[in-house]
Amino acid sequence: MITLGIIMEAAAAGAGIAKLGGAIGAGIAALAAGVGIGKIGASALEAIARQPEAISDIRSNMILAAALIEGVAFFAIIISFLALVL
């Protein structure tokens, strides 16, 4: 109950929690995008090693998936920065 009271006081005092949430959100989005693209790269290299004749298909799918992940991460970071500013 004491912790809830501290959080309520901080929320009433200003937008400090919103700024903290925005900063944490931006960090998580960047970290998750890096991990996701790393897993895509590792899986693509493993698939190319197993089937070298399919390199062009694997590479194009890898680039497309990485671009989609970057787009989502960019959107999340922009939303987090808006939480910091507004």
Automatic annotation (TrEMBL):
V-ATPase proteolipid subunit C-like domain mapped to chain residues: 20-82
Coiled coil: none
HAMAP family: ATP_synth_c_bact
Cross-referenced InterPro entries: ATP_synth_csu_bac/chlpt, ATP_synth_F0_csu, ATP_synth_F0_csu_DDCD_BS, ATP_synth_F0_csu_sf, ATPase_proteolipid_c-like_dom, F/V-ATP_Csub_sf
Organism of derivation: Williamwhitmania taraxaci
Family statement: Belongs to the ATPase C chain family.
Transmembrane segments: 20-42, 63-85
Subcellular location: Cell membrane; Membrane
Superkingdom classification of source: Bacteria
Keywords for this protein: ATP synthesis, Cell membrane, CF(0), Hydrogen ion transport, Ion transport, Lipid-binding, Membrane, Transmembrane, Transmembrane helix, Transport
SUPFAM superfamilies the record matches: F1F0 ATP synthase subunit C
Membrane disposition: Multi-pass membrane protein
GO cellular component: plasma membrane; proton-transporting ATP synthase complex; proton-transporting two-sector ATPase complex, proton-transporting domain
Molecular function GO terms recorded: lipid binding; proton-transporting ATP synthase activity, rotational mechanism
Annotated positions for site Reversibly protonated during proton transport: E70
Keyword Transmembrane helix part of the UniProt annotation: yes
Pfam families to which the protein is assigned, alphabetical: ATP-synt_C
Main location: membrane
Role of this protein: F(1)F(0) ATP synthase produces ATP from ADP in the presence of a proton or sodium gradient. F-type ATPases consist of two structural domains, F(1) containing the extramembraneous catalytic core and F(0) containing the membrane proton channel, linked together by a central stalk and a peripheral stalk. During catalysis, ATP synthesis in the catalytic domain of F(1) is coupled via a rotary mechanism of the central stalk subunits to proton translocation. Key component of the F(0) channel; it plays a direct role in translocation across the membrane. A homomeric c-ring of between 10-14 subunits forms the central stalk rotor element with the F(1) delta and epsilon subunits.
Protein name per its UniProtKB record: ATP synthase subunit c
